[in-house]
Amino acid sequence: MTKVDARDFQTSETDDRGRIYLGTEYANKRVTVAVVEVESDHPDEDELAAAYREASESADELAEEWDEASDEAWNELDE
After folding, report:
1. Domain assignment of residue 59, yes or no
2. 0.90 exceeded by the pTM?
3. Which portions of the sequence form the region Disordered (predicted)?
4. Are 29 and 2 in contact (CB under 8 A)?
């Protein structure tokens, strides 16, 4: 069995099917790979929920400001 030095570890991205290209030096050899960490390039559910809440609150604030501006504009037209 070929041992791999810890300094040879590298971070690789997978293709759309979750595969990683190891290189020709591993051709026709049995390779055992350990996944140490997985990072997603998509936001997690908590991040999405927080962003949705923030957007919703901003929309509510804008709607209130618009109502006030609209009321002021109508009142000036009525005078």
Report:
1. yes
2. no
3. 52-79
4. yes
Its sign, for the CA torsion 34, 36, 42, 44, is positive
Cα–Cα distance for residue pair 29/72, rounded to 1 Å: 77
Tell me the C-alpha distance between 39 and 5, whole Å: 23
pLDDT digits (tens, 9 = 90+) for 42-74: 777 888 899 899 999 999 888 888 888 888 888
Q: Is the Cα dihedral 62, 65, 71, 73 positive or negative?
A: negative
Q: How far apart are CA 62 and CA 69, in angstroms?
A: 10
Q: Does residue 1 fall inside a structural domain?
A: no
Give the structural domain span for 74.
Answer: 6-78
